[in-house]
């Protein structure tokens, strides 16, 4: 079967007539173009873009064929609800600390051996990502893996990209490994009315190929990747040096007779100006980290302030205060301090901070953490950080009390890049959470009930047994993913109903019909991977699965093989930080540049494209 696919050159038995390019198709292509522009430029948040797509499709109903009911059908779609339920189940498991404990145990033997550290990272990530959504898995393991690197005197840069990539290949082990798999299954089922070979995926539909992909990917990540990844962050990195904090932090003392004596931190902030943020107040031998606005000040207090170079110079003439030195003179910004821990916070996918302009004073009041530095899109922001617009993956250097980091680690706004000193997990609920997940998978795998029903039943069981509190259900959901699914599903329907997908398939067939089928299959894999780097993985499967199925039918091939190629390619995006959420989560903590992903990911993408396409041809035929 595989040999025939490699040697045959299947031309069309009967030339397929060129479909007529209609006004309806052109309108839908215009909507697709709008979606691509908005996804690429990120002028609007991803969930707002999704809602806009629904509105545009319904307003243009005479051409798109999308009425209001169909426009909002994505919210009630089986894939959307299943993804929502799986996110909640993943959240429940994360509350027990299972994933973190697994990571720590797998890393316990690693020591200073880089290869063992990579093995521990991959072994702790890939299998888990087959059953839990891989986005929260990476969010949970970033601090664990960073600590493994620091304990082993290894640059975290060497381990964090492998962490992200291992989670992506692990997501291809089962139907529920990624939201993309679930969405692709739903699209395949919908197209089954037109193509007999297509159907809804079973729980372990492609596990045999997923295992091969995981093994090949793991071997590459363990034995090859570290040669290609630069040490962007030095081992046991000094945060103060890495963020050049010494150039922007100074100490000023409140002098006798100062108007600030008896005033508050808020009054001092107003007096010193908007460019100056008070990160500590030192009094005698005690100090307040991330002090509240209402904290009263006294003569002799030393204010540790973070600002830009120009404002530091201006402090010499500020009323009521006197510079007493730069960093280290009267306050210790130590990462190991018991009063204020120095660490990085990564802006998460579902964070309230995304799109906001950084206001250190407001951040201190809301999160009880003092901002000392910022990496935006991987680049260090020197000088003035006030007013910088925050995005997913941006990294804030903060100092905060240990209890604050515990609270932040359990929330959804940021990922704490080092494990909190006193993490609080519901460890006693871990066996219950594992049992619930096994039950969800077993019921779906045995086809007693669909995955949608078993997942929703698992959500109820998580609440009833106390694994999750009712109010935590909403916090566990990445709502931008849910809105994205709801917005792109009707776009996919419009592509199919207007014939736009068939027209694109004809273009593919007319240009690639002289190539061997397996080469056409490989090209779909490569194109899907490249498009996923530009837009989201979920959007790419919505746009390309209908085209791939129609193209396969046009050359007399197996549509299911082409659907699987698109599905695998969309879930393995290795060429940049944008295409996949997990790549963004490690961007800041690893200190990476955009080119680092290409350097490591391009060879892996080529290797897995070959392995996946050959595997599809072997297991399912083309």
From TrEMBL:
PROSITE patterns: RCK_C (PS51202). GO terms for biological process: potassium ion transport. Residues 237-321, 328-414 form the RCK C-terminal domain. Keywords: Membrane, Repeat, Transmembrane, Transmembrane helix, Transport. Pfam families: CitMHS, TrkA_C. GO terms for molecular function: monoatomic cation transmembrane transporter activity. It is found in: Membrane. Its main location: membrane. The chain crosses the membrane at residues 23-41, 48-66, 78-98, 118-142, 206-229, 432-464, 476-495, 502-528, 534-553, 560-580, 600-620. SUPFAM superfamilies: TrkA C-terminal domain-like. Gene3D superfamilies: Regulator of K+ conductance, C-terminal domain. One of its GO terms (cellular component) is plasma membrane. CDD domains: SLC13_permease (cd01115). It is a multi-pass membrane protein. This is Citrate transporter.
């Amino acid at each position: 079967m595989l040999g025939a696919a490699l040697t045959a050159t299947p031309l069309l038995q009967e030339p397929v007539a060129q479909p007529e390019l209609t006004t309806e198709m052109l309108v839908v292509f215009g909507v697709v173009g709008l979606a691509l522009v908005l996804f690429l430029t990120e002028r609007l948040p991803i969930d707002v873009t999704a809602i806009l797509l629904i509105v545009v499709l319904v307003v243009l109903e005479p051409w798109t064929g999308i009425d209001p009911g169909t426009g909002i059908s994505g919210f009630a779609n089986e894939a959307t609800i299943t993804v929502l339920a799986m996110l909640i189940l993943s959240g429940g498991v994360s509350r027990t600390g299972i994933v973190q404990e697994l990571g720590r145990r797998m890393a316990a033997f690693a020591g200073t051996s880089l290869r063992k550290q990579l093995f521990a990272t991959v072994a702790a990530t890939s299998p888990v990502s087959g059953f839990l959504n891989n986005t929260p898995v990476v969010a949970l393991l970033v601090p664990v893996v960073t600590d493994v690197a620091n304990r082993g005197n290894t640059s975290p840069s060497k381990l964090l990209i492998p962490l992200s990539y291992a989670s992506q290949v692990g997501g291809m082990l089962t139907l529920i490994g990624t939201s993309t798999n679930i969405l692709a299954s739903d699209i395949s089922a919908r197209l089954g009315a037109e193509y007999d070979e297509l159907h809804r995926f079973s729980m372990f539909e492609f596990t045999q190929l997923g295992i091969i992909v995981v093994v090949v990917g793991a071997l590459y990540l363990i034995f090859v990747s570290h040669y290609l990844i630069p040490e962007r962050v030095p081992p046991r990195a000094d945060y103060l040096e890495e963020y050049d904090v010494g150039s922007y932090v100074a100490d000023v003392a409140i002098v006798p007779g100062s108007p600030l004596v008896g005033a508050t931190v808020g009054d001092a902030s107003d007096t010193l100006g908007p460019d100056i943020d008070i990160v500590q107040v030192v009094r005698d031998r005690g100090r307040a980290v991330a002090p509240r606005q209402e904290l009263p000040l006294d003569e002799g207090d030393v204010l540790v302030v973070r600002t830009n170079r120009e404002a530091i110079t201006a402090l010499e003439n500020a009323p009521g205060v006197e510079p007493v030195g730069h960093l280290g003179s009267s306050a210790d910004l130590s990462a190991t301090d018991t009063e204020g821990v120095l660490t990085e916070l990564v802006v998460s996918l579902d964070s309230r901070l995304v799109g906001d302009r950084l206001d250190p004073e407001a951040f201190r009041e809301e999160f009880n953490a003092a901002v000392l530095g910022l990496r935006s899109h991987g680049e260090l922001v020197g000088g003035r950080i006030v007013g910088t617009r925050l995005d997913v993956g941006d990294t804030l250097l903060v100092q905060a009390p240990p209890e604050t980091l515990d609270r932040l680690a359990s929330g959804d706004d940021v990922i704490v890049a080092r494990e909190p000193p006193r993490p609080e997990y519901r460890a006693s609920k871990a066996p219950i959470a594992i049992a619930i997940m096994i039950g969800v998978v077993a019921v779906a795998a045995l086809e007693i009930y669909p995955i949608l029903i078993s997942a929703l039943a698992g959500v109820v069981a998580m609440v009833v047994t106390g694994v999750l509190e009712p109010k935590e259900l909403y916090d566990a959901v990445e709502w931008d993913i849910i809105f994205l699914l709801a917005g792109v599903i009707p776009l996919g329907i419009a592509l199919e109903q207007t014939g736009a997908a068939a027209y694109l398939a004809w273009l593919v067939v007319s240009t690639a019909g002289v190539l061997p089928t397996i080469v056409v299959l490989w090209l779909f894999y490569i194109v899907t991977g490249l498009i996923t780097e530009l837009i989201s993985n979920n959007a790419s499967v919505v746009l390309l699965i209908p085209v791939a199925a129609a193209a396969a039918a046009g050359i007399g091939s197996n549509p299911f093989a082409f659907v699987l190629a698109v599905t695998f390619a969309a879930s393995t995006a290795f060429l940049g930080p944008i295409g996949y959420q997990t790549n963004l989560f490690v961007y800041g903590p690893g200190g990476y540049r955009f080119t680092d992903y290409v350097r490591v990911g391009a060879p892996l993408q080529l290797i897995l494209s070959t392995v996946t396409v050959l595997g599809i041809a072997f297991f399912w035929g083309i």
